[in-house]
Design brief:
Ribosomal Protein S5, domain 2; five-stranded mixed beta sheet; alpha+beta
Length: 128
């Protein structure tokens, strides 16, 4: 039984996945996907690459997730799963790439600048 691993990142979230043949179980930080991501939308985001290739019931996925918020974690996990599926079968890459699942979203939070309330916001200007 071959185990394939991959890593995905999004904002501050990092997802390490270990994919093996199985029945379609997804375990995130020793919890089921239903308890880790109660929102159906986030579960859908995570399963998008599997659904695209029709392999939802074919692989068991073990995940270590840390950092970021729930949306960033879900998207990091989606990228990691897509990368692992391409390692398993390289012919799947064009299908996943056309959906945008193989692209690392490079947007990060801009740092806060000194003397300002946020990264770009300024304090209110008063002429007098």
């Amino acid at each position: 039984m071959e185990i394939t691993n991959a890593i995905g990142r999004r904002k501050a979230a990092v997802a390490r996945v270990f994919v093996r043949e199985g029945k379609g179980n997804i375990v995130i930080n020793k919890r089921g996907i239903d308890s880790y991501f109660p929102s159906g939308i986030l579960q859908y985001i995570v399963k998008q690459p599997l659904a695209k290739l029709d392999v939802v019931e074919k692989y068991d996925i073990q995940v270590n997730l840390n950092g970021g918020g729930f949306k960033g974690q879900a998207e990091a996990l989606r990228l990691a799963i897509a990368r692992a599926l391409v390692k398993i079968n390289p012919e799947d890459k064009p299908a996943l790439k056309s959906e945008g699942f193989m692209t690392r979203d490079p947007r990060e939070v801009e740092r806060k600048k000194p003397g300002r309330p946020k990264a770009r916001k300024r304090f209110q200007f008063s002429k007098r």
